[in-house]
Amino acid sequence: MLQHDVVRSEVLSRLQDKAKSRAWDGEFLDIVDTALNLALSQDRLADNADHLTRNVMRDARRTIIRAKRNACRSAALRPLPDAARRRVTTVAADGSVTAEMITHDTPEARALIDETLRELSLFAHTLGSHGPGCLQDMLGQETVPVSAQRRSVSVATVERARRALREQTRILMEGAA
Q: Which of 44, 46, 75, 90 to pair with 122, CA 20 to 30 A apart?
């Protein structure tokens, strides 16, 4: 149960005065609201009103900044329902996650993608009977061992096919630019 504390009462009064002084600033009001919640915590040392006010305001700013950062990070991992504002996440070799926004969903972009996929499919047929399947598995983000097992070829064969497909994609993209 919350005990009456003169220092906490003084801090709450100061924080309410701060909120009244800048009632037009929504971000500042969020900070003050979080600071009020922090000031009510019995775990905080309440010896001096000046120190407690400064500490809860500082901690409230940090809490809000951390919450915004975490919200952005978690939003980047989830695809948005709007097709014109999709996010694509990729995992690099070192394990880092990169989120990229796809902002332009135009007929021209779709035509370029369709043409690139057609040319890659034709190139995949030149790699052998496993080529088209390796391309489909690569586009479906299957792992190399799963693709090798599915296509009944060695892991090295799938890796060579993927390397050739990546090189051909790079050549096609350089030609398009």
A: 90
